[in-house]
Each structure stands twice: as structure tokens, then as C-alpha cells.
Amino acid sequence: MQAILSVTLPFFALVLCGYLAARSGVLAESAIPGLNGFVLFFALPCMLFRFGMNTPVLELLDPVVLGLYAVCALLIVGLSLWLTLSDRVRLKDAAFGALVAAFPNTGFMGVPLLVALLGPAAAAPVICTILADLFLTSSLCIGLARAHDAGAGNARRAALQALRGALSNPLPWAIALGAMASITGLRPPGPLDTVIRMLADAASPVALFTIGAVLWRAGQHAHSRTPPELYLPVAGIKLLLHPALVFGLGLLAQKLGLGLSDFQLLVLTLAAALPSASNVSLLAERYGADNGRVARIIMASTTLAFVSFSGLAWLFGIGARS
User: Fold this and answer.
1) Which tens digits make up the pLDDT trace of 162-201?
2) How many CA atoms lie within 13 A of 10 on its CB side?
3) How many angstroms separate the CA atoms of 101 and 87, rounded?
4) Which of 75, 87, 264, 271 is least surrounded by Cβ atoms within 10 Å, i.e. has the fewest?
């Protein structure tokens, strides 16, 4: 456990630093979107490009890993909607609640954390989860949320609009460029490679700091107070049920001989155990959902994940392996 905490504690401490910096005013609220933009459009794409460039493409786009994770995401979305949709939680709010239940913070937190815990080989399965969540989970949930306003007949159009939004995200394009570099063997020239490496090195600390700042901002822009019974169960689905489902279906896939390695299953399970993606609060605010509820789910999952994620890693014996 000491070996695990030596890795996880600094990561969650940087999230806390970002939260406290924003709360105390050291980091101005007006600077948070710029910080988020630096991570999303510069640092994180460079990090994913470098991992993609140095990973065999068949590992980067493993169909078994993608299929397993996608099925689990759909099941979590469906279960979350079934459990939370009510007179108190309308479809739009239930859809965004389902999104934070199924969408872990793999981009800003998961890639650097799991690589630090398990080594560079962990990057490929985590990148698979990013692709599944960007194109499937988020498109589905945003489509459902927009269908609430547009009417059930326009759900397909809303989902297609959400998919186009995913295509405007720089992360899948960075992964695609990395995959092309892996296939062709081409590498950026020396000075450009140095710039990419410097931006990639900045991704982890700045992204974690940004998570904390975004969480504080989300709380400030919450339009309502949410009772614990409307957000804590969703945080529990994210931190406990999601990884349990991935692990259980992964074991079933192995019994069926689908070619899922123990290491891939470990990475996928730990990725599912990460807290909810912090940027979903910005999406909820943009689409007029109950961002107070979404922000509290993300805050609860991020706070509790320090214990639950570290405990799960300990159960898997990661500290003993390192």
C-alpha cells in the first residue's frame, strides 16, 4: 500500500492544489478556461501522440478491449438512467448523471496515473477507453440530453450532433496521428520532437491542477443545491459498480477465449475505477442541465477515489509487483 500511495497521493494532491488555488483566488476564475484549453489542445494531445507513436497499432486499437469497455459503458449508462430517472431528475439531468457514472477521467488523470503505476504498456488500453468514451458514451448521453429539449423524434439528430462534437475534440486526432506514426515509422524532426516532448511532459501536472480548478468553478456555477441521495449513489456507481462490471465481464471474455490478457483487464478495471471526468460539468452547464448535481457527483467521486482507487490497486497487488 505504501508503494501505491507514493504514486497516487501526489496525483490527488495536485488536484487539491488546483482546487485551493482557485478557491483562494491565487488562480483567477477567468484563467481556468485558458488553463483547460492549454491541456486539451496542446499538452494532452502531445502526450497521447507520443504514446500512440511508440505503441503497436494493434494494441492501440484492440477490438476486444474496445468492445468490452464499450459494452460496460452502455450497461452503466442504461443502469444509471433506470435508477435515477424520476420526477425529480428529468431526462436531461439523468443523461448527464449517466455520463459521469460511465465516463472516467482517463484523459486528464488516467493516462499519466496508470502509466506511473503499471508502466508505459498501460497507455494502449487506456487510450482505447478514451476513444470509446469520446465517440460512444458522450455522444449517446449528450444525444439523450438534447432529445429532452428537441423531442424523442430528434434523438438521432441530437446524437449525430454530439458525434460531430467528438470529432472536433483534438484527442482522437492526436491518437490517430500517433497511430499513423507507429505504422509508418516516421518520427517528427528533432526540434519539433523536442517541442512535442516538452508539451507532453507538462500534461500530467497541469491537467491534474486543472481538474481541481474546474471542480471549484463548477461548484461556483451550480444553480441548485442537490441532496446527497441524488448524487452519492451515482458516485458509487462510478467508483464501485463500473470497475466491478468491467472486471466481471472481462473474466467472462477470458473464459470465452476472446484474447483479453490479464494485464489489459487490470488496466481496464483500474481505468473504470477512476473518478468522473471533470469536464462533464462544463458540458452540463453548456446544455442547461443541472450542473450542480453533476458537479457534486464529480466532486464526490474525485474525493472518494483516493481511497477506493488506491484500495483497488492494493487488492490487485500492484504495490507488490513494483
Assistant:
1) 667 667 788 889 999 999 999 998 899 989 999 999 999 9
2) 12
3) 20
4) 87
Q: How far apart are CA 141 and CA 158, in angstroms?
A: 10
**CA 82/CA 256 separation, integer angstroms:** 29
Alpha carbon 67 to its chain centroid, in Å, reads 17
Does 74 have pLDDT greater than 80? Answer: yes
Q: Can you read off the three cell numbers belonging to residue 216?
A: 471549484
pLDDT computed for residue 167 by the predictor = 75
Which residue(s) pair with 159 in the sheet? none
89 contacts: CB under 8 Å, gap ≥ 6: 97, 230, 290, 293
Q: What are phi and psi of 276, to 5 degrees?
A: -65, 150
pLDDT for res 249: 97
Q: What is the pLDDT of residue 35?
A: 93
Distance CA 181, CA 54 (A): 8
User: What's the start-to-end Cα distance of the chain, in Å?
Assistant: 11
CB atoms within 10 A of CB 71: 15
User: How large is the average pLDDT for residues 74-93?
Assistant: 91
Residue 321 confidence (pLDDT) above 60: no
Q: Residue 158 has what pLDDT? A: 65
What whole-number distance in Å separates Cα of residue 106 and Cα of residue 95?
20
Please choose, from the candidates 260, 275, 250, the residue with its C-alpha nearest in 3D space to the C-alpha of residue 106. Answer: 275
The secondary element (H helix, E strand) that includes residue 133 is: none
- How does pLDDT run across 97-135, given as a tens digit for each residue? 999 999 999 988 999 999 999 999 999 999 999 999 988
pTM exceeds 0.85 = yes
Cell for 169?
475534440
SS3 257: coil
Partners of residue 276 on adjacent β-strands: 104
Cβ neighbours around 74 below 10 Å, total = 15
